[in-house]
Specification:
The complex is a heterodimer of chains A (328) and B (228). Chain A has 328 residues and is of the alpha+beta class. Chain A is 71% helix and 7% strand. Chain A is built from 10 helices and 4 strands. The longest helix of chain A has 44 residues. Chain A is elongated and about 100 Å long. Chain B is of the alpha/beta class. Chain B is 36% helix and 26% strand. Chain B has 8 helices and 10 strands. In chain B, strand 9 and strand 10 form a beta hairpin. Chain B is globular. The chains are: A alpha+beta (328), B alpha/beta (228). At the A-B interface, helix 1 and helix 8 of A face helix 2 and helix 3 of B.
Chain lengths: 328, 228
Amino acid sequence: MAKAPVPRPGGARQSASPLKQVAGSYLDHHRTVARDSIARMWRNPVSSMMTWAVMGVALALPVALLLLLASLQNVSAGWENGARVTVYLGLETPLPQANALADQIDTDSRVAFVELVDRERALAEFRVSSGLADALDFLQENPLPHSLLITPEASYRSTDGVEALVEYLQGLPAVERVQVDLGWLQRLNALAGLLTRAALALAILLAVAVVLVIGNTVRLAIESRRDEILVAKLVGGTDAFVRRPFLYTGAWFGLGGGLVAWLLLLITFWWLSAPVARLAALYHSDFVLSGLGFENAIMLIFTAMTLGWLGAWVAVRRHLDDMEPGDH
Amino acid sequence: MIEFRQVTKRYGSDHTALRQVNFTLNRGELAFLTGHSGAGKSTLLKLLVVMERPSAGEVWVGGQLLNSLPRRQIPYIRRHIGVVFQNHQLLFDRTVFDNVAMPLQVIGVAPGDIGRRVRAALDKVGLLSKEKMNPLQLSGGEQQRVGIARAVVNKPPVLLADEPTGNLDPELSADIMNLFGRFSQVGVTVLIASHDITLINDMNRRTLRLDQGQLVADGRPRTEANHG
């Protein structure tokens, strides 16, 4: 097309030009084939969209699960940061001893801050927050012990760090009970880890399913273009030449499937976002359902295209390579 | 250009399609391949385009031994051999032009050159005006000529034809044969499988006759007839 002389460094023009021509025609064929395989898809819009939808659902399901788990893990990470340890002292412990204990704990390098809540204050707070003021009036004496609210140093807020601190605190005299909210946090983490694995296993299974679905679709496409393949092989088409349209077909199916999956995820997360926000508000949590970012969406689509291409490749290897002119 | 040395082709253990066939076709030579159906004509052509491999002996095309040719190399041999079939093998989902253009697309000819060369080939077979039509709209003879245009568009040194006049009336058949004659005049080696004895006798060209897989005659039919 471009006949204008292009200045070229080194200028081995005569020897380079046939090579350039071959490369140009190679790229041109890629373009033509890519366009042609899209056009063929549009010619059967219903069946193409069915394939896209199947692929989209199969991809959206594990991705949605993984996103949900990632959001959950974000939340637990947030709570871990705010981890506090509550130490309940024995009921008979006098206030000066409690104060001394608080000072002692405060000198520990793992502890950022200690707050002593004495029995009277604890009762007053409980009276206000529980709404059981009348019932409490019937009690002869204050049932609540002194307690220490301990905030660990930032570097000891990990599960292991807190566990070590708890062990130390339990060894102190007059300490009745040490309570950490890590128990359920650990359980949540373990559960999330398990679910992540399950979601990955599901993702792998569904990826295999996607490859097989595309493989089957491409197999049908190969069958329907059998004559053309035989003629192409007869006039000297290489395997790569004959495979190319089908590999593009697979990649386009992947593209469509990826886009459908993205759309499904957008709709689902939009639909869930309001109830999730309400639920999070009820729990005083900053839990946010984080959707698929743009980069991840590109990753998803790219993965889908790779899976489509792979499916096409499987079909091509199985059905096209041993198709030879002559054996009708 | 084409040489068979003691070529034998067996299918399984009980069917021998060719037995120790020897012959040589030079550049620009036109020859007929004849014999009853099942005599081995198709097998011989299939060996030339590497659809089949010989069980014994050597098949040479253009100085290349085909017996042990790696699978990957087969397309490159086929680019040098134009093939015309009785059943045309045209694609009805595209125009005449696109049918003829296929061998050029396969080897990656630039789009501009494709147009020029396809039209040149269609001009040779007298179908230049029908390039935009679908092959289904053409008569049997015209379809056959499209097949010929496709076989020669790449200017191959070898042209093979399998019953190219099978369904055509004598007049059209003679036209097609003359077309083949003209290709051989410009240096193309042409081998035509046919059982149309009348036509072969009329043409009076070198004729290879196969009988049950054996080459039983090689020469011009009239001299052969004189001797026989």
